Amino acid sequence: DVKVTQSSRYLVKRTGEKVFLECVQDMDHENMFWYRQDPGLGLRLIYFSYDVKMKEKGDIPEGYSVSREKKERFSLILESASTNQTSMYLCASSGSYSYEQYFGPGTRLTVT
Amino acid sequence: GENVEQHPSTLSVQEGDSAVIKCTYSDSASNYFPWYKQELGKRPQLIIDIRSNVGEKKDQRIAVTLNKTAKHFSLHITETQPEDSAVYFCAASEAGNMLTFGGGTRLMVKP
């Protein structure tokens, strides 16, 4: 069974704080993704990584950065959190030979 | 970039009835179309997908149809059951990895 875990289920941060969200997968997947999920907007891709240290911007990268120093770990960084970044953040991974994405449980981030 | 629209946003059916969710996409180069199901409080999971070289795919009570000319695809669930209640997301992709999702459909199956 593919296992994708995220560092926190719930997080409350103040405006202007630096926020780190971590994702770890145990299936040696090459691809990892960060999405944010908002009602009525579906899942929107923030960043995608296809290899260690490699990344591509998704549809909404503004205000976010990512880091992938090890194959199994993909971090999402909010340099200076703002209230409009309050959302559910989902990490996912997929292998080279299948397009199926396996999602983590999500982190509900509230920025006050 | 790709744009995926999904309708309806909510759908309520009686147990045993069929449910149909429709999606349209904008990029004619898209060739991979998955559907994900997200139960309340849980993570999205792939339930079925279709590639552009086929027009229909079935898996027990669920089926997906694709019309490349019209750039739309649909999810069909027959003999709905209460456990089908969830949010369903369609998506489209050209390369398979970077998915563009629709806004989601909340399906409620009333016993």
Overall morphology of chain B: globular
Average predicted confidence as pLDDT of chain B:
95
User: Stretches of chain A where pLDDT falls below 50 for ≥5 residues?
Assistant: none
Please report which band the strand proportion of chain B falls in: under 5%, 5-15%, 15-25%, 25-35%, 35-45% or over 45%. Answer: over 45%
Helix content of chain B: under 10%
Q: Give me the secondary-structure category of chain A.
A: mainly beta
Intertermini distance of chain B: 41 Å
Q: How many beta strands in the DSSP annotation of chain B?
A: 11
Mean pLDDT of chain A: 95
Q: What form of chain A results from the Cα inertia axes?
A: globular
By DSSP, the count of extended strands of chain A is 11
Sheet with most strands of chain A: 7 strands, mixed
SSE pattern of chain B, N- to C-terminal: EEEEEEEEEEE
Helical fraction of chain A: under 10%
Order of helices and strands of chain A: EEEEEEEEEEE
Greatest interface by residues involved: A-B, 23 and 23 residues
Rg value of chain A? 13 Å
Oligomer state of the chains in this structure: heterodimer
β-strand percent of chain A reads: over 45%
Distance between the termini of chain A: 37 Å
Uncertain runs of chain B with pLDDT below 50, 5 residues or more? none
Question: What features would you describe in this structure?
Answer:
The complex is a heterodimer of chains A (112) and B (111). In chain A, 0% of the residues lie in helices and 57% in strands. Chain A has 112 residues and is mainly beta. The radius of gyration of chain A is 13 Å and the shape is globular. The model of chain A has no long low-confidence stretch (mean pLDDT 95). With 111 residues, chain B is an all-beta fold. Helices cover 0% and strands 55% of the residues of chain B. Chain B contains no helices and 11 strands. Chain B has strands spanning 4-7, 10-14, 19-25, 32-38, 45-51, 56-59, 62-67, 72-77, 86-92, 100-101, 105-110. In chain B, the strands form 2 sheets. In chain B, strands 2, 4, 5, 9, 10 and 11 form a 6-stranded mixed β-sheet that branches. Chain B has a 5-stranded antiparallel β-sheet with strand order 1-3-8-7-6, with no helix packed on it. The termini of chain B are far apart. Chain A binds chain B through residues 4, 31, 35, 40-45, 48, 50, 56, 58-59, 90, 94, 99-101, 103-106, and chain B through 1, 4, 6, 9, 32, 34, 42-46, 49, 89, 93, 96-104.
